[in-house]
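Student: Please help interpret what follows.
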Amino acid sequence: MTLQEKLNHYIEKHCLSGAEAARRIGIGQTQVSEIRLHNKYTPLIAERIFKAFGDEFKGFVEYDTCPYCGCQYVRKRSDQRTCLSDECLKKNRVDKAMEYERKVSSGELVKRPYEERRPANKKYLKLPEVKPKVGYAEFNERARSQGLSYGQLQGLERLGLR
């Protein structure tokens, strides 16, 4: 049974509205309707439902174990590797720094120049340099001699009338 089916059954059984269920869980009504209609939820929402409605929703909560302190936690982000205690975060940062230093010292992680990093199979578009036939000052002088403004002469040339 999915969380969607379980939540719909619980709401019908206890005669709750979606708004009342959202208030009890502590999330928005749109999040409840997303679960009820499309079965879309995050691990944190599953944990909130478990805490609000009881043990019958425990199977939908995925706990991870912190490698440093051994406590169980629910991931808030996909890249989270430890619980959010200060000590574990500091240990994790130290481990990442040591791993980075190991890669740099072994030559595994070396900065290369741009030419080496650029993919060889990618073709870059090279445009030819386009220079105007006449400079701005000369074009403006020609416009004045004909009794036109710069914009008028430019418009006529674009239309091919001059």
